[in-house]
Amino acid sequence: MPSTEPVFKKIETLLTTQRLAVLSTQSPDGPYANLIAFVCSQDMFRLFFTTPRTTRKYANLKADPRAGMLIDNRSNDVQDFHRAMAVTATGGIVEITGGEQEDVTKLYLSRHPYLKTFVTSPSTALMAMEVGRYILVDHFQNVTEMRMP
């Protein structure tokens, strides 16, 4: 069985170098996608983001916590067809509350300090995707799936 180490390193690189992701949620009207700022836990099992509780994405996640998050390194250049990588994370979303909230907020703000006023607003929810799997696409066609324990 081939080693998953190279795939893991590519995923880790995307998660630690990119600041934005596309979050996909589901509503009765169909799929809904949003650009979000995120940060990952050190073990890569969780991806954190924030959203106002008054948004459509928040309502969608409360109704159906399953979601997908796309993180990529494209530059909108022709070379992207050969060099770009994208990883899709899938899993369930939960709102972070209680004792864990302070530590996760610190982690999030270490990556996105310019969002402090937004993140610390009482109307903003701190959310976590509990990743079930990652699907990495590189060289435009190479697809590798990695299930998380």
**Poorly predicted runs of 5 or more residues:** none
The portion of residues assigned to helices is 25-40%
Mean pLDDT: 93
**Helix count, per DSSP?**
5
What is the ordering of alpha helices and beta strands?
Answer: HEEEHEHEHHEE
Global morphology: globular
Number of β-strand runs: 7
Reported CATH architecture: Roll
Main β-sheet description: 6 strands, antiparallel, barrel
Record the strand order, biggest sheet. Answer: 1-2-3-6-5-4
Radius of gyration: 16 Å
Q: How many separate domains make up the residues? A: 1
Proportion in β-strands: 35-45%
Can I get a quick summary?
This protein has 149 residues and is of the alpha+beta class.
Secondary structure elements and their pairing?
Layout: H1 5-17, E1 20-27, E2 30-40, E3 46-52, H2 56-63, E4 66-72, H3 80-83, E5 85-95, H4 100-111, H5 116-119, E6 124-138, E7 142-147
Antiparallel strand pairs: 1-2, 1-4, 2-3, 3-6, 4-5, 5-6, 6-7
Q: Can you offer a commentary on this structure?
A:
This protein is α+β, with helices and mostly antiparallel strands. It has one domain (5-143): Electron Transport, Fmn-binding Protein, Chain A (Pnp Oxidase, Chain A, Roll), CATH 2.30.110. Helix content is 28%, strand content 44%. The longest helix has 13 residues, at 5-17. The protein is globular, with a radius of gyration of 16 Å.
